[in-house]
Amino acid sequence: MLFPDFSFLGEGLRTRCKSTKQMKLLVENPGFILFAVKKKLILQVINRLFMKADINVPIPVLRRMPSYLSFVKTLQKQGEKYVSSTRIAEYMEIDSTQVTKDLSHTGISGKTRVGYEVDSFVRILEDFLGFSRVDGAFLVGAGSLGSALLQDKGLSAFGLQIEAAFDTDKTKIGTKVNDIEIFHIDQFRAMAAERKVVIGIITVPAEHAQNVADLMVAWGIKAIWNFTPARIKVPTHIVVQNTTIYMNLAILFNKLYNDKGEKSKRLKAKAYRL
């Protein structure tokens, strides 16, 4: 029997898969990757590409899970041994049945009248989300946003380590941000091959995003985290997650200024100025 060649996924991705079936699912479903939740600029990365591929977990569930994990890890540091779904639900301000339903996807089981064992909860959920193993990534665009990401020391706790940054600005080449060196973009290809990095992060101006994406694909990157407003086009086997702070800002403004009371105040203030 001949097995398909999945070598293009890279060693890091292949070792996450338990079977040829799972690797096939990754290839055929490029949406299986990287969901971001904000904390300052970003809170964490949810890497669905490295989850159990035969489980169809709804996106809203995936977005809640890192918050569950963060909360329970705080309890773990405080020395607590058990946590109930009710307590997690109170922290999240949702119904406890939703917590129980969400966690049913992970294999985490609790004890009646006791709850979930904290250490086991953290271990299983970290493994489920792909956070138990750290994967390397290269970042292109060491401007304000890129530098902020380089400064974020929390990423490695959620499975992602930015190993190097790249730019074309001569004043930045050779400098370091948070001990991460900035190289010229021309060095990207050789370094990616040498370090077997398959995840690329784009934080360049929007008008350059597609060019950078094209280079990443040509240079062996298999998953792209795009922080620009541009919607990049890549081959179907390349996984892309688009994350833009401007979208979240639009949502914030919409919620803030569409409130009837606030809208009334603004109209009165405008009338007064006139």
CATH topology type of the largest domain: Rossmann fold
Structural class by SSE content: alpha/beta
Please report which band the strand proportion falls in: under 5%, 5-15%, 15-25%, 25-35%, 35-45% or over 45%. 15-25%
- Overall average residue pLDDT: 81
TL;DR of this structure?
With 274 residues, this protein is an alpha/beta fold.
Provide the fold topology.
Layout: H1 11-14, H2 20-28, E1 35-37, E2 44-46, H3 59-77, E3 82-83, H4 85-92, H5 96-103, E4 116-117, H6 118-129, E5 135-140, H7 144-151, E6 160-167, E7 176-177, E8 180-184, H8 188-195, E9 199-202, H9 209-218, E10 223-226, E11 239-242, H10 245-257, H11 260-273
Parallel strand pairs: 5-6, 5-9, 6-8, 9-10, 10-11
Antiparallel strand pairs: 1-2, 3-4, 7-8
Helix pairs in contact: 3-6, 4-5
Features:
single chain; 274 residues; Rossmann fold; Arc Repressor Mutant, subunit A; seven-stranded mixed beta sheet; 11 strands; globular; disordered N terminus
Polypeptide structure, described:
- The protein has 274 residues and is an alpha/beta fold.
- It has three domains: 7-51 and 131-243, 3-Layer(aba) Sandwich (Rossmann fold); 59-129, Winged helix-like DNA-binding domain superfamily/Winged helix DNA-binding domain (Arc Repressor Mutant, subunit A), CATH 1.10.10; 246-274.
- It contains eleven helices and eleven strands.
- A seven-stranded mixed sheet has the order 7-8-6-5-9-10-11.
- α3 (59-77) packs antiparallel against α6 (118-129) and α4 packs across α5.
- The model is unreliable at 1-54 (pLDDT under 50).
